Amino acid sequence: MKLTFDKSMTFFREYLLMTVGMFVYSFGWIGCILPARGVGGGAAGLSLILCHALNEYTGIDIQIGTMVFIINGILLLIAGFIVGWNFGIKTIYCVTVLSIAMNFWQTLLHGQALFAGLENLLVVILGGILAGLGVALCLLQGGSTGGTDIVAMIINKYRTVSYGRILIFSDFIIIGSSMLVGFKIDAVIYGYVLTAIVGYTVDLIMAGNKQSSQVFIITHDYERMTQAIVNDAHRGVTLLDSEGGYTRERSRVVMVVCLKRETSSILKLVKQVDPNAFISVGSVMGVYGKGFEALTKI
Question: pLDDT by residue for the chain (298 residues), tens digit each?
Fold first, then answer.
């Protein structure tokens, strides 16, 4: 019964934090970036540009959250036909909550400048920090805001390209295209500053700018730990022979290499199997092989 209660509380906490993350992320956009007439990348930035263009040239007024939902919905449909329909429920949940949260803040604030006393650049920086915080909260729980994540999944179906390169390229195109619909050069500069701030904030919260983590787990119940990680986390495991320096007791160390956004899920899983396990987590500069970077990229 206790295990069932713990799982329920974990489930509730994860979805609560993802919800908070999406509301913080959307407030950064609607409460800071939008009043400062800034632009950005990703699905949110593209939605802002499209909504502005529709209103400017056709008089059609669509809320940004609705446009975010439409763009992500189209990307999910395309990805479904190309790479399959194995989307995580958390990604769909975060995309839906993000759209609702953006419409909520836009309706509540009515475009008011909450930080009118600050320079626009400072307001954009504040918005970038809030947006990065929201994204990090979502990633730590195993969620995704969609947008570039879906595009990266589609591209990597045919060619191995790092997520960072896809993010930089797509954001560069989206932000630059804002000038075609009436945004000024200062908005474009704000957009590039915003992208850097969001990326840095996410990396800072996610424990540095390393892309992968190497986890060493010392536990007597290494067999059950191995099965749990392989079956639940879907990550490969390496068992290393070990011997206690003081007790001289022989055992095995469970080693897992995972993406940095998966580290939190691995640690939660370890806690469920053996709360007394000794864990060491380290950042690694590069990981090559199945599930990570292709060897051909070396």
Answer: 455 777 788 888 989 999 999 999 999 999 999 888 888 888 899 999 999 899 888 888 899 999 999 999 998 888 888 877 666 788 889 999 999 999 999 999 887 778 877 888 999 999 999 999 998 888 888 788 888 777 877 887 777 666 667 777 888 899 999 888 888 898 899 999 998 898 888 877 765 544 688 999 999 899 999 999 999 888 889 999 988 888 888 889 999 998 877 888 899 899 999 998 999 998 886 676 766 666 554 5
Interatomic CA distance for residues 275 and 268, integer angstroms: 10
- Looking at CATH, the fold of the domain delimited by 212-297 is given as Alpha-Beta Plaits (3.30.70)
Q: Where are the domains of the chain?
A: 2-205, 212-297
Q: In what order do the strands lie in the sheet with 278-284?
A: 238-243, 250-259, 212-218, 278-284
Q: How many helices (H) and strands (E) does the chain have?
A: 10, 4
Measured distance CA(18)–CA(104) in Å, rounded: 16
Rounded Cα distance, 100 and 65, in Å: 6
Question: For the chain, percent helix, then strand, then coil, each to nearest 5?
Answer: 65, 10, 25
In three-state secondary structure terms, 214 is strand
Whether pTM > 0.85 for this model: the answer is: no
Enumerate residues 6+ apart whose C-beta is below 8 A from 272: 3, 6, 228
Where residue 147 falls (left for φ over 0; alpha for ψ -120 to 50; beta otherwise) is left
- 28-39: b (≥16 Cβ within 10 Å) or e: bbbbbbbbbebb
